[in-house]
Amino acid sequence: MNLQGLYLSGNQISVIPAEIFTLVSLRELDLSDNNISMLPPEIAGLVNLRVLNLSDNQVPSTSDIITDLKARGVFFVI
Fold first, then answer.
1. In this predicted structure, what is the pLDDT of residue 1?
2. How far is the C-alpha of 46 from the C-alpha of 9, rounded, in Å?
3. Distance CA 27, CA 14 (A)
4. Tens of pLDDT along 5-58?
5. Residue 68 has pLDDT above 80, yes or no
6. SS3 6
7. Distances, alpha carbon 51 to alpha carbons 7, 37, 46, 60, in Å
8. Cα–Cα distances in Å, from 33 out to 1, 13, 30, 57, 60?
9. Is 52 helix (H, G, I), strand (E, B) or coil?
């Protein structure tokens, strides 16, 4: 699938569905205003990801995964 943007804001998601990690063409992922408290390591497999919106969630901004993704050039909204 060649999906480049996925917008799941305000859906009361607490765990990111594993199917999202198969969307390797994904460039923008909006998970804002949900109940997410951690990022699974599989998110690093989204090699084309450039924007990740996690605002209004419980994910700590000091997460190692966030640090790694920022180093790769992913823009975060937390």
1. 64
2. 19
3. 21
4. 999 999 999 999 999 999 999 999 999 999 999 999 999 999 999 999 999 999
5. yes
6. strand
7. 11, 18, 11, 17
8. 26, 9, 9, 6, 14
9. strand
